[in-house]
Request: fold
Amino acid sequence: MSNLNRTKTIESLLPGQSGVILHIGNERGAVKRRLIDMGLTPGTRITVKKIAPFGDPIEINIRGYELSIRKADAAQITLGQIPLARARREAARQTQPRELPPETLERMHLAHIHELEEHPATYDHGAHDARVMSIALAGNPNTGKTTLFNALTGSAQYVGNWPGVTVEKKEGIAEIDGREIVIVDLPGIYSLSPYSMEEIIARDYILGDDEEQPTDAIINIVDTTNIERNMYLTVQLLELEKPMVVALNFMDEARKVGDEIDVSRLSKELGIPVVPITAKTGENLSELLHVAHKQMHIGYTIEPDDLYDEFTHEIHHRIGMLIHDAAYRAGLPAHWASIKLLEGDGLVEKTLGLSEETSGKVAEIISEYEASSELGDSETLVADSRYNYIVNVLKSSVNKGRGRSESISDKIDRVATHKYFAIPLFLLMMLIVFALTFTVAGTVLSDGVAHIIEGFSGWLGGVLNSAGVAQWLGSLMTDGIITGVGGVLTFLPQIAILFFFLSLLEDSGYMARAAFIMDRPLRYFGLSGKAFIPMLMGFGCTVPAIMGARTMENEKDRRMTILLIPFMSCSARLPVYGLLAAAFFGAWAGAVVFALYVLGIAIAIVSGIIFSKTIFKGKPAPFVMELPPYRIPSIKNTLIHVWERLKDFLVRAGTIILLMSIVLWFLQSFDTSLNMAENSADSILATIGGFIAPVFRPMGFGVWQVAVALLTGLIAKEAVVASLSMFYGFALTASGTVIAAAMAGFTPLSALALLVFILLYVPCVAAVSTMYRETKSLKWTTLSVCWQLAAAYTASLLVYLIGSMFV
Reply:
């Protein structure tokens, strides 16, 4: 591996080449802050691992982990050796404090002690008796927070091996020493300087903005295999001086590569308890809770004296003396707020509301601090001081093993992120998943469920007839509820199979690679590779996918992603695809469904290009993303994921679909005079559908049954199957040929046009309401609905017209 100390920037390095960071450019402030938080500080060695298949971004190794950044940002990072004279000046600056009058030093010390005594971080024994206390789980993404949360509380939150799985706080109950304690799972964060919405959620909760459930203690989960970078958040949490415990997770993996950690020494250096754990096996979890409870009673921790170099320590105390009263009024720890001002944190500055005079004095102190060094601005200097502390602490307490010359992740990535194999491999995996879901295992299992439901329907019908139950009630039970709800439940096995395979891909860490691969193509229409993750989530359910867009730092990028997510075909559409594809395309059903998914992606791409050239003009969003190591998926976690989706599906079937089936049965069984209709064509439903049906006539499915089914699909897409099953009288065990025959006048072409419309038109009401809640804008929500309807109608019409030319 070559050492190119004279190389100017990271962007110019080739894979396998390395260099030492000299300076971080300041062209894009938000990106620079994230790069610094991720450990790209002056004097740090980096190595370029690979370049993405489309030529950008690049993957670098830094501080023992893999990070992906764009070439444009890499070009802002200068490399080279820090001159010896400059290095000596920096060392002198860090070890020799400025001379201050004794009375000033005394005031600084007393102010800090006073803050610890009066700030609400102190443990309140009365509150302990009056309310349930809480522990916040805080840590970087991919450190196993949600796995730990599930293990402590018995909850079944889904765990994914990519950044941003948890996008809002989740709560559960654990028992500690005979008392119930609320455990709060926070979004993964890299820093207490917010870079995205999820980090704001986490920071606000840790600071105690939640008055109903304030934080009484923090468990900081640290990935032991990536301990240096993870500790950057740890030292920031120490600055808050709240009750805290460090949980060293993945100890089993650390032992495998020969890492040795002196836990006692690490605990002594940090000044807080450190507990080694393995969340997925439950190792030491009882001890962790016991220690956390004990920390609550202590009520606070004290920041280590050597966390900052002497001059940085002096500077932030001087700022603290100026802002103490303002911080107290704002409910912020003055000690912590002074550090954030030194870093240039705009949110803290706005919250403090300092007078013009005080702001001027603070600015003078920061200028003095920056003038003391040649390394960069105050933000870089603070981060550099923190990382120097981390390196010194780990040097005395951690002995890294040799490990492997080439990790398993490296070997897998040789194929998974290969220039030519990456995209074909992804498409091949998706094709295999859909083939298994819709042709082989999925069809057999769905037929089995259908037979069971059909048998139950026949048995119940016989029982009701024998009991002399009124004809209308028997019809409601068998033709309405069982046919409607049962028609949806038939596709339960296919949904389970699809989510099983998608969960395996997510848990393995592959999805982060997919984002790395797709960043360059997505940039052509103004998005970053991070948009790929919530869009992939959209294949499961649109609601959490829209919420997942919170992980995106750029507001333009986030809104655009939210508008495109509904084009990703959610699992609720699967029953419709399964019904029509099996009926009209037989052995080609899997290929047709796969083509629908690809079409949804293609329409999203076209929409993105149009949006990026019109309403979302501007610079492309940044892409700074950790690439977690591949891990063997946990069967337990995979089953949790599958069950969560199936449970949601069953709840919808037992509530929304049940209600819709009853309403539809009534509207189909009675005419406008509320008399039983002998022919459904004379029913209330037929009258309603007759007004809408002509709109769909140009696409080949302009009949009232389909028009009404599409309306019910606005409530829940599964309702389309329930509606068609009732209107056309499908037997649950009917073959595709029988179903096709029942839908008289339908051809494979008109069925395909209908499938395209269902793929692209407006998602369910829950998704639309989530979109409104996340964008906080009726304008963007209305635009999304109108755009989707226009895209669905246009694409469906084109499919039918072009297809008619060949058949």
